[in-house]
């Protein structure tokens, strides 16, 4: 139990001390690139890590109608950073819901509200851990 608490403390503090120490695994970065292409999201900056809290990945909390956030968490099971939430509210995105969401195995929350996405929920999403859509 003590080891788990120590590991959680290290993960949490690594984000606070130096955001660049939070590095998303390559397969999830590639999944985010696919998602961006599928929905026309062209202002994510892939030259910085998506878990870095860079302004292209996280917007200020000042607007309820507009949100651009990718949230990552360090998991004890593998000690790696994984995307758990994607919030793209009010981005004027068009197209269909991105099948590549299924390539983010730890994703539990997706918010695409106030966009122009249409179509049915992709079959690929059946294998996800999504809890909130």
UniProtKB/TrEMBL annotation:
Tagged with keyword Protein biosynthesis: no
Any one GO cellular component localisation term in the record: membrane
Chief location: membrane
GO MF term (any one): protein serine/threonine kinase activity
EC number: 2.7.11.1
Keyword field: Kinase, Serine/threonine-protein kinase, Signal, Transferase
Enzyme class, spelled out: transferase
Its membrane topology: Single-pass type I membrane protein
Top-level taxon in the UniProt lineage: Eukaryota
InterPro entries, per database record: LRR_dom_sf (IPR032675), LRR_Rcpt-Like_S/T_Kinase (IPR051824)
Subcellular localization: Membrane
Name this protein carries in UniProt: Putative non-specific serine/threonine protein kinase
Species per Swiss-Prot/TrEMBL record: Rosa chinensis
Lineage of the species this protein comes from: Eukaryota, Viridiplantae, Streptophyta, Embryophyta, Tracheophyta
